[in-house]
Automatic annotation (TrEMBL):
The organism's place on the tree of life at top rank: Bacteria
Role, per record: Promotes RNA polymerase assembly. Latches the N- and C-terminal regions of the beta' subunit thereby facilitating its interaction with the beta and alpha subunits.
Name of this chain's protein: DNA-directed RNA polymerase subunit omega
Any one of the GO CC terms: DNA-directed RNA polymerase complex
Keywords assigned by UniProt, alphabetized: DNA-directed RNA polymerase, Nucleotidyltransferase, Transcription, Transferase
Chain's gene name: rpoZ
Length: 67
């Protein structure tokens, strides 16, 4: 079974696997509370999958804080 979107495609958007996991988990919890999804016609029925689809669609992104 192939996961969509692929980890390779997601790492082109966010290069750190740790950041990718943290961002998608936070967004999944937020969606669970609000039931609001930023993309139309999602393929996934699970919140983490929806968050990853939002990252792939450039609806959810991460900006590094300046040090």
């Amino acid at each position: 079974m192939m996961l969509e979107p692929s980890i390779d495609a997601l790492q082109e958007k966010i290069n750190s696997k740790y950041t990718l996991v943290t961002l998608s988990a936070r967004r999944a919890r937020q969606m669970q509370e609000t039931k609001q999804v930023l993309i139309e016609n999602p393929k996934s029925h699970k919140y983490v999958g929806l968050a990853l689809e939002e990252i792939q669609a450039d609806k959810l992104y991460y900006e590094a804080a300046e040090e």
